[in-house]
Amino acid sequence: MLEPNWLKWAKELQAIAQAGLTYSSDIYDIERFEEIRKLSIEIMTTYTGTNPQEIKDLFANETGYATPKVDIRAVVFHEGKLLMVKENMDNKWSLPGGWADVGLSPREVAEKEVKEESGYDVKASRLIAILDKKLHPHPPSAYHVYKIFIECELIGGTPETGLETNQVAFFSKENIPDLSVARNTLSQIKMLFDYKRNPIKDVILD
User: What is the value of pTM for the model shown?
Assistant: First the structure.
């Protein structure tokens, strides 16, 4: 299921409100943009059943011009199998990765996340895909997210869990585990195996 319309509208209203509050100086305009922000929170609250304050803290807490967040996932193959880590949050499996860090390049984020979450040392080698999260069957998200998949070469280290992970393993295409779909979907994992089989494919964009 792709992103529902109510979530799309709520995020767009939030982005309009955030930009308006950033660049407006007229008190009446500021008041109108605050109302738009409240409306976006009400939409999220109505459809998710979440406490309005929680929605405000998560969804309407940023300032400045609204831009997508960036989620970077490292793609590490070894002997035809794909490296995955089991997340503490939901006890399901994902590619190593997370939010992009200010001050680090995408390459550096991918390498750092693999080390922290799996114990392995890798070298980022090429970009595989940049995907818009809303176009894929992830659970609804309060943020507009771009997902960047970067292939990395395994160069050393030993399997070790991190602060956010409790297992580390490699999986074949025929043995994909129970996935943390907030982080990666079955179709995305299959896409990565297809890319490995045909490495001359162009970077995937959507």
Answer: 0.78
Whether 174 is in a domain gets the answer yes
Query: What's the gap between Cα 76 and its chain centre?
Result: 17
Residue pair 136/2 in contact (Cβ under 8 Å)? The answer is: yes
Q: Is there a single domain that holds both residue 73 and residue 91?
A: yes
pLDDT digits (tens, 9 = 90+) for 119-170: 999 999 999 999 999 999 988 777 889 999 999 999 999 999 999 999 999 9
Q: Is the per-residue pLDDT at 65 higher than 80?
A: no
Cβ neighbour number for residue 165 with a 10 Å cutoff: 21
Reference 162, options 81, 55, 86; nearest CA is 86
**What pLDDT is attached to residue 2?**
63
List C-alpha distances in Å: 66 to 35, 38, 172: 17, 16, 39
- Quick count: other Cβ atoms within 10 Å of Cβ 9? 13
- Nearest one of 83, 198, 185 to 136, comparing CA atoms: 185
**DSSP-derived 3-state class of residue 151:** strand
14 and 113 part of one domain: no
User: Range of 154's domain?
Assistant: 69-205
Q: Which of 127, 120, 178 is nearest to 154 (CA)?
A: 120
Tell me the C-alpha distance between 175 and 188, whole Å. 15
Domain co-membership, 171 together with 114: yes
Whether 64 is covered by a domain: the verdict is no
* Whether residues 151 and 197 fall in one domain: yes
